[in-house]
Specification:
By secondary structure, this protein is of the alpha+beta class. 35% of the residues lie in helices and 31% in strands. The chain has helices at 2-27, 35-47, and strands at 32-33, 54-57, 63-64, 70-77, 84-93, 97-104. The chain has a four-stranded antiparallel β-sheet with strand order 2-4-5-6, covered by helices on one side. Residues 1-29 form the signal peptide.
């Protein structure tokens, strides 16, 4: 009788550990990139449509590469203090590749 109780508790702990491990894995299902790497991709996208050299700031947190997600980044032209908001839409192409579509507001943030 005592043995069944211990075995049941051990089995319950194993099921709980497996369940929690599954939750942890699903929480990090999307690959992330550093803000610096993401900003570099945004700069390249903006340089394709403009001769200006943009400066981009997308914050300090790693960015999840989830198809369709949008990230707000500050954009300005190098040498100028005028900052614009931009919406960067992520498109994923398989496990490793991604691209961005950038829309910069017409009016400065302030």
């Amino acid at each position: 009788m005592q043995i069944k109780h211990v075995m049941g508790a051990a089995l319950g702990a194993a099921v709980l550990a497996t369940t929690l491990a599954g939750c942890t894995a699903s929480a990090s299902a999307y690959r992330t990139v550093s803000p610096e790497s993401f900003e570099s991709t945004v700069v390249k996208a903006l340089q394709e449509i403009s001769d200006a050299t943009p400066e981009v700031d997308c914050g300090d947190e790693d960015i999840a590469l989830k198809d369709g997600d949008q990230v707000h980044c500050d954009v300005n032209t190098k040498g100028y203090d005028v900052v614009y908001d931009s919406v960067v839409t992520i498109s994923t192409k398989g496990a490793e590749d991604y691209s961005v579509h950038v829309e910069v507001d017409e009016q400065p943030k302030s």
